[in-house]
């Protein structure tokens, strides 16, 4: 589907994202990775391409893109550069949460600048002592005159160095509450994190909230137990984006490996003609095809408002992230020593793919969650959960 009639007048679909990735991301991804940042000029280029929040309704400057098409877009960006896709993922999570859970005033204030990319968003959940176990989060939100006071430290925050607004989760009474906190709010401190294994250009930071006072309007969704829903629904969107991005890594590994094995000969044979090499390539082709079907299924169920999308998204992310790690390793192997050097992108895919197994629900958490479905149905092992 090509969307042309947007408030910003920008046509965006997967084909446009593919062209953008080939023309603008692929040639720059190595430099972004080496320098550990995505420059502002490039972020503005993404704005001009309408990439930041095309799923938002046109009245807020989005393109009303379906989830199915959004997944395809994120797969294309992830094929080009996982750091850029990571920045897009956290921005998407924040913008989606404001659109889904925000009041009319919050949507009017935040969504248009988020759609244009005039404001970039980041999401603050993880703490030095709590990641997978969100019940262990220690940041607190307490009532203060006219609003709330936030205290706590958030670590590993993608885009934290660059974001203009944070969606920060803190314990408020018996539940978790989410707050929109502009970067310049007194008491917000950002400390860059460098030398990350993968997604090295995603501008990670530790973000400290030192008695940060925010107005009541900063609270997104209801305070109390219900706001667990804000967190879980937002994580589902992030997981979907990472599933698509991991699919992009598999496709990038396949492209690089097909090109290399068609150009390199060993002992008088082209690599592409060696059976053990072909086995690796065929596994990449198969998992790329299967991963695409799983991501598309999750997207279609989201578009239909079908709650089974949540499990479909877990399964898609589990499949594509673990397959990406496996195939990025195979791609380095296929490239031999060249795979370990700076002249080929596969070393970056290898480092980035490992990160996909940790973020948005680690592999182990996915295994625990997906296994539950075997016990939900009268016939154990049924795949009808999705
Ligand atoms: C590059 C990068 C970007 C990130 N971006 C963000 C961001 O933007 N915002 C944000 O809030 N966070 C972010 N994170 C943090 C990420 O979400 C957490 O790292 C993730 O949730 C895992 O938490 P943890 O690192 O504390 O690991 P832990 O929870 O300490 O887990 C350690 C290990 O134990 C395993 N484990 C945990 N529980 C169980 C269990 N019950 N059974 C078996 N095994 C278990 C885990 O799978 C993992 O292998 C980012 C992390 C990275 C590396």
Task: Give a description of the structure.
With 386 residues, this protein is an alpha+beta fold. The protein has three domains: 14-119, Butyryl-Coa Dehydrogenase, subunit A, domain 1; 123-223, Butyryl-CoA Dehydrogenase, subunit A, domain 2 (Beta Barrel), CATH 2.40.110.10; 231-375, Butyryl-CoA Dehydrogenase, subunit A, domain 3. The chain has eleven helices and ten strands. It has a four-stranded mixed beta sheet with strand order 1-4-5-8, with helices on one face. The chain has a four-stranded antiparallel beta sheet with strand order 2-3-7-6, with no helix packed on it. Helix 1 runs parallel beside helix 4 (67-80). The protein is globular. It starts with 13 loop residues before the first helix and ends in a 14-residue tail after the last helix. Bound molecules: flavin-adenine dinucleotide. Flavin-adenine dinucleotide is lined by residues 90, 123-126, 131-133, 156-158, 196, 199, 204, 355, 358-359, 362, 364-365, 368.
